[in-house]
TrEMBL record, chain A:
GO CC terms of this entry: plasma membrane
Any one of the GO BP annotations: transmembrane transport
Localization terms from the record: Cell membrane
Protein's UniProt name: Sugar ABC transporter permease
Membrane-crossing segments per the record: 9-28, 69-90, 102-123, 198-221, 257-277
Keyword annotations: Cell membrane, Membrane, Transmembrane, Transmembrane helix, Transport
Recorded family membership: Belongs to the binding-protein-dependent transport system permease family.
Domain ABC transmembrane type-1 span(s) in chain numbering: 65-278
Pfam family, one: BPD_transp_1
Highest taxon listed in the record's lineage: Bacteria
Membrane topology label: Multi-pass membrane protein
Length: 291, 297
């Protein structure tokens, strides 16, 4: 029985209709909208690069962009490095280890809204964080974590990291379990201590996982929204506003769909460049390790 | 995980061998490791316990007391009873379940359908189709949300389950994951089935799908977590509060009781309870699924 040449496409059809309708078509429309003054009320007029000119001339946009990069610079290394050590820790054959693995994964399954609400309460002026830090002698008086311009964005970052730790830990666990144990045995015979084993065996062989985590965490850091929406609303004085939050406000609060689309295109280009840099940089490193 | 098994096997097959005594430094090391493990657990679970404690505090207790009181003086469920009046928990739970389950089922169906020819058939344009599908992973939803919103309004999808589900009904990640699973199955299987006169559809459904169950479970868990926790898209597409999913419900609750932390805490606990219970029962699949997704996807 010969297959009809259309058969493969019949199988592809449902999925491709969804991807076409909700990704490709919107993608082209977003680019088109970014050259218009569409505002949901009136028909869209073509305005050329006006939106981009306005965007790049807007101080708030640059502030928001700067803060988005700040987010990236702090959150990505934290999410790439800390989970490696947690994964090594929970990869040991200890009693009750699966309890700890689960406990570290609980934040991952909790919705960001509840996480945000919970941490808002932890961060409160008379909250538990200030109390713990004060009793440990780290701070002398309560810090206004979410309501001070100097700390708000860092307080939100800490929550992003807190929620992501378990997820990336599991990705590293998968990587760790694919490292053959005889390598460690050989290193032990050669007299390498635990720390040396981590530096010379674990980390280099974990490179593919590190690459995945770097790409995933930097793309998700570019898109951070919920934690800011719930905890600070971008404030105080825009100090914790990031690009996606800015796009959301311009589009759905001010109804400046055309202008917001231009900001969306900028977000897309940055994401694209980040992915390419990540892949290039990491594959080079991987080659160096293998060679 | 494996070392544990080998150790226990040794114990059962060689009972005569006395258990190795741990030296003093080894015991200290173990204590140190557990101390670190507990410290991290305290950081990841602590905020939940603080939320729970607040939700159980009675009206006579000052929840803003400094230093904070961790154990409620007279634990009470009255906040839960009271919040149920304003918080239609069951309705939101129902909406969340419907949306998540539909999203999972459609993803399994559409992603595995699309993955089948990409993994096991030769046809013109296959590579281009595959690259186009994979490239959608790079496009942030935040760029698309404006046109999708306009599209959904035009299609009359506002405040409908379809509106919540359809934009996420197929993902490139899912297609990729299923394709990788299909590729690992020997090709002789479908060749011999074809000789017996089975159609492509039957081969997909009766032969291949049962063989890729682990990948299907991984996809289901991933999609479920994404759909269950989704906030931005429901926030945009819903303005009818009776269609709210749990995250939106909690957000609205927090907005309407900005100062009543007891109620907000109780509502938040109610809303995380279903997923945490589900996680406790299915945690093996959650963690294994995420691990498989990482290696193959």
């Amino acid at each position: 029985m010969r297959r009809s040449p259309f058969t493969p496409f019949l199988f592809l059809l449902p999925g491709c209709i969804i991807l076409g309708a909700f990704i490709f078509y919107p993608m082209l429309q977003a680019i088109w909208l970014s050259f218009t003054d569409y505002n949901m009320i009136q028909e869209a007029n073509f305005v050329g690069v006006d939106n981009y000119k306005k965007l790049f001339g807007d101080d708030l946009f640059w502030k928001v962009l700067g803060q988005t990069f700040l987010y990236l610079i702090f959150v990505v290394p934290a999410l790439v490095i800390i989970p490696i050590f947690i994964a090594i820790l929970v990869n040991q054959p200890l009693k009750g280890i699966s309890f700890f693995r689960s406990a570290y994964y609980v934040p991952v399954v909790t919705s960001m809204v509840v996480v945000g609400i919970m941490w808002k309460w932890v961060y409160a002026d008379t909250g538990v964080l200030n109390y713990l830090l004060e009793s440990a002698g780290i701070i002398k008086e309560p810090v206004y974590w979410l309501t001070s311009t100097s700390t708000s964005i860092f307080a939100v970052m800490a929550v992003t990291v807190w929620k992501g730790l378990g997820y990336y830990m599991v990705i590293y666990l998968a990587g760790l379990q694919s490292i053959p144990s005889h390598l460690y045995e050989a290193a032990k015979i050669d007299g390498a201590n635990k720390w040396k084993q981590i530096i010379h065996i674990t980390i280099p062989l974990l490179m593919p996982s590190i690459m995945i985590v770097t790409i995933m965490s930097s793309i998700s850091a570019m898109k951070v929204f919920e934690e800011i929406y719930v905890m600070t609303g971008g404030g105080p004085l825009n100090s914790s506003k990031t690009l996606v939050f800015y796009i959301y406000q311009e589009a759905f609060e001010k109804l400046q769909m055309g202008y917001a689309s231009a900001a969306g295109v900028v977000l897309f280009l940055i994401t694209l460049v980040l992915s390419i840099i990540n892949i290039k940089f990491m594959s080079k490193k991987e080659d160096a390790v293998k060679g | 995980m494996k070392p544990v098994q080998t150790v226990s096997k040794q114990k059962t097959t060689m009972p005569i061998k006395p258990r190795k005594k741990l030296s003093g430094t080894e015991i200290m090391k173990k204590i140190a490791v557990y101390a670190v493990l507990l410290f991290i657990a305290f950081i990841t679970i602590g905020p939940f316990l603080w939320l729970l404690s607040t939700s159980l505090k009675s009206g006579s207790e000052n929840i803003f007391q400094y230093p904070p009181v961790f154990i409620p003086e007279n634990p009470t469920l009255s906040n839960y009873v009271a919040v149920m009046e304003f918080f239609p928990f069951w309705k939101y739970l129902f909406n969340s379940v419907v949306v998540s389950v539909l999203t999972v089922l459609l993803n399994i169906l559409f992603c595995s359908l699309a993955a089948y020819p990409l993994a096991r058939m030769q046809f013109k344009g296959k590579n281009i189709v595959f690259i186009l599908i994979i490239s959608t992973m790079m496009i942030p939803f935040q760029l698309l949300m404006i046109p999708i919103y306009i599209l959904a309004l035009n299609l009359g999808l506002q405040n409908t389950y379809a509106g919540l589900v359809l934009p996420h009904a197929t993902t490139a990640f899912g297609i990729f994951l299923m394709r990788q699973a299909f590729i690992t199955i020997p090709f002789e299987l479908d060749e011999s089935a074809r000789m017996d006169g089975a159609s492509s559809f039957r081969i997909w459904w009766q032969i291949l799908m049962p063989l890729v169950k682990p990948a299907t479970v991984t996809l289901a868990i991933f999609t479920f977590m994404m759909a269950w926790g989704d906030f931005l898209w429901p926030l945009i597409i819903l303005n009818d509060t009776s269609m709210y999913t749990l995250p939106l419900g909690v957000n609205a609750l927090a907005g309407s009781f900005t100062s009543n932390w007891r109620y907000i805490a109780a509502g938040s606990v109610l809303s995380v309870l279903p997923i945490i219970i589900f996680f406790i029962f299915a945690q093996r699949y959650f963690i294994e699924g995420a691990m498989k997704g990482a290696v193959k996807g």
